[in-house]
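In pairs, describe these two lines:
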Amino acid sequence: QVQLVESGGGLVQAGGSLRLSCAASGRTFSRYAMGWFRQAPGKEREFVVSISWSGGSINYADSVKGRFTISRDNAKNMVYLQMNSLKPEDTAVYYCAAAYGYRLYSGVSDYDYWGQGTQVTVSS
């Protein structure tokens, strides 16, 4: 069982930055690939980025490549999402998710556990 709690969302102007954090409970955190997804009003939840259990492999959605950076600290059971050069279209609720396994996963159904989400709003 893994419980996830996101933090760090907020309101920022276009071009600004935010850093999201995801705190995970459970002693087997290092056995999980981690991902960030987002969901804007009226839209489906979409993949943002995933990171393998070791942190050695990362996969970004094209829409955030070069602007967002994911990292993880297995000793602290934490995952981070640094978001730079934010755009109004990045506005969404951002979710942290955990998928048991050693690969990278990009599908919503691949993930076993989800956080409650944190709102990110980018004003133009």
Summary: The chain has a mean pLDDT of 96. DSSP finds no helices and eleven strands in the chain. Residues 68 and 123 are 18 Å apart (CA to CA). The two ends are 40 Å apart (CA to CA).
